[in-house]
Amino acid sequence: FGYKVYNHYLSKINKNNIPVIQIERPGESDGSIISWNGNNKNLVDDLSQKLDLNIVTPEEIYDNHFKQDKIDDTKIQRIVHGVSPDENIMVNSIVIGKSNSDKITLIAKDGYITEIIGGTIKEHGVEKLGKVDLAKAIVKTGLLRKSKVKPRVLKKNESEDVFKIAFLDHAGEDVYQFKDADLVVTVGDDTTLIASDILYRFNIPIVGITDGDLDKVVEDGFKAKNSIIFEFESGTDDVVGRKIFELIFKKEKILVKSRNSKNIDEIRDEIIKITNLLNCKYNIINI
After folding, report:
1. Which of helix, strand or coil describes residue 96?
2. So where are the chain's domains?
3. How far apart are CA 232 and CA 72, in angstroms?
4. What is the pLDDT of residues 188-241, one digit of tens each?
5. How far is 117 from 227, CA to CA, in rounded Å?
6. 3-state class of 2 per DSSP?
7. Which pairs count as long-range contacts for 4-13, CB under 8 Å and 24+ apart, including other chains?
8. Which H/E stretch holds residue 109?
9. d(CA 98, CA 215)
10. For residue range 229-286, what is the model confidence (pLDDT) as tens digits?
């Protein structure tokens, strides 16, 4: 996580000459301290001694956790540490398998994940993920949140004239770009679970397109008032999602309508029309 944060803000850090030191798991046997931009030796040495922490270099972090190993001209692997057995394996917010050991290795051929050493692959998840750059992909395992929380809900400033609707398909972490939307249509069980939980904090309802293929990436998810969940037959959320994107959103991620009291109802009714055309069975849950 420290690696991701540091590299995400690297230009700002360098521009403002900001020292970045990470203290990881103090008090534990594997605790360590990392100086990400390496010009704080005296301070790092002092902290290491006082906190009884091993000093780890950024190069060690890169080599052990992020280095991409080339197997041949078409195949590469990425090793993932800190895994527990029976955890979901997520790549770019899509569950692509389940672990059965404390270390897994993802194998990709021509950009497509083909094997998980130390885990079981989920073919439907890999299909949804598509082509991926393992060097840049965000890989996570386990539950995103285990603890019981009471979320802080931010007050949202709404436009008096327009109602902005966003479309999110199988990529829950992309939801932050839609924090100014008034409604988000989410496709996929895990995407709906992740996105609704995040958007609850911004007081944004969702219309979720699901089909029961849930991997429980969070144990308990929150949903904003006026959210609607469509539950379809197994394996049909992708089909319905594509039609919604094509017919309602005209293949654009943002749809802007004139604001009125029935905006959410109108979207719900448009989705019902599409599902009737596709002859899909469904249930509706109103939050």
Report:
1. strand
2. 2-63, 68-141, 162-286
3. 42
4. 887 888 888 889 999 999 999 988 765 554 455 788 999 999 998 887 888 999
5. 39
6. helix
7. 4/138, 6/36, 6/37, 13/37
8. strand 104-109
9. 10
10. 999 888 788 899 999 999 999 999 999 999 999 999 999 999 999 999 998 888 898 9
